[in-house]
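Tutorial handout. Part one gives the primary structure; part two gives the three-dimensional structure as tokens.
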Amino acid sequence: MPDLKTARLMLKMARKDLNALGGMMDADTFAEEVFGFHAQQALEKALKSWLCVLTEEVPRTHDLEQIFGLLGEAGANVPSAFKELMDLTDFAVIFRYGDIDLDAHIDRGTLFMQVTEVVDHAEEIVREAEHS
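Part two.
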């Protein structure tokens, strides 16, 4: 049975992280690790809200690969473009709590748009479930 209450709560929290992300476009003010963390968090919460519609159990994990796998097992048709964001998992733990220099520069505008697309998609899934 879908857990629409939790799905809505997860989406609300995903939107908060997404809004924070939108305010962090200045790389001189916000470190890559901070930007990446909020991108990962918005993505994780959006995916978990989607999972709430499909299953009763949502894992307590930051591992996006695991969450994408569970979505697939639950029968979700996950666009391959969404799965390309799987590497954001590293921002939840490794880059968040470690003193590691990032080799790559994040294209903040592109990443913001990609995460927004996932959050919007999850919101549509939840909205459809609420009206079913």
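Part three, for discussion. Residues 25 and 108 are 6 Å apart (CA to CA). Helices lie at 4-22, 32-54, 64-73, 80-83, 89-92, 94-97, 108-130.
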